[in-house]
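Deviations from the work plan: none for this task. Representative record:
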Amino acid sequence: MAQVVVVTSGKGGVGKTTTSASFATGLAQAGHKTVVIDFDVGLRNLDLIMGVERRVVFDFVNVIAKEATLKQALIRDKRVENLYILAASQTRDKDALTEAGVKRVIEELSKDFDYIVCDSPAGIEKGAQLAMHFADQALIVTNPEVSSVRDSDRVLGLLASKTAKAAAGETITEHLVVTRYDPARVAKGEMLAVDDVQEILAIDLLAVIPESTDVLNASNAGSPVIALGEIPAAEAYKDMVARFLGEDKPHRFLEATKKGLMGRLFGG
Amino acid sequence: MALLDFFRQSKPTTAQLAKERLQVIVAHQRAGNTSAPDYLPKLQKDLLRVIRKYVKVGDDAVNIGVERDGELEVLELNITLPSQQ
Ligand SMILES: Nc1ncnc2c1ncn2[C@@H]1O[C@H](COP(=O)(O)OP(=O)(O)OP(=O)(O)O)[C@@H](O)[C@H]1O
Ligand SMILES: [Mg+2]
């Protein structure tokens, strides 16, 4: 049986897709057979972040409508073994997804995969609720900013009331992922500190991903951030996956890096 | 609030303000009161009707709002009487 993990946030543009791509890639690199599903029907972009946009023939909606089989729609990642992508439809809208259809696809994938990562659309409406409905665990992606934290709290409310687990009287394991974190601004008192976000939401902190210009470079190139090499955002995502898989890793990149003499002389 | 401000060493940073606001917002959200009570528009209409028994006032004479401060919830009621002719 697979573990179903939803990556969700409420607020848009906080880093769900960026996080889903790196998370799924990291799980696969660790040897777990993983599929990442784009639930953002009508506005797909996981395919771009994963660099497989030219290989999408059939999508999630085709499978739900039984116009294609899962086997036809699953895109195998060429760089990482054990990793598959199920793209969202670009032409249909969110009503093309049904609870029964999603259930059938997830049950079928469950037989074959270790992890099913669901990249949720923004909002708290149908699309987001379907993405979380069959989840065993949730990554709550939050920016250190008032509206994002409030939306995350609403999403926590939905996870605890509107999901299959909730209906069965069970709980979804929730993990906080704070992204776009800027330690220099935190030090100046201009940005919420991760401890404050965690205290307010009162869930387990899984990872802090620093604000980084490398993220745009990764999306330009169609490669998940985690695959970028020894840069802070990639390292932070690697730590996230390791912690998720049970390793005990201290949080890094929480302090502003002090500029050396050269940096101070020449600016930056 | 004002007293608290007085004792604070210096002006709070915006991050501190953000935290304080969020603590209130989240407490309310978790208590299930995400928005103003839905009876407010009806109450406003009823009040207007009662006041009109005694004074001739315009449609916008009654203003109602809810103010929240921590655990405290205050119903604010403003009635504008017509100026003396
Ligand atoms: N750690 C980061 N540092 C800098 N930029 C980032 C970081 N994480 C994400 N971004 C940028 O933020 C934008 C939104 O990211 P992303 O698409 O992952 O968010 P999303 O939550 O999936 O959005 P949507 O709600 O539209 O699906 C992108 O331009 C991305 O490059
Ligand atoms: Mg997205």
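Helices of chain B lie at 2-7, 14-31, 40-52.
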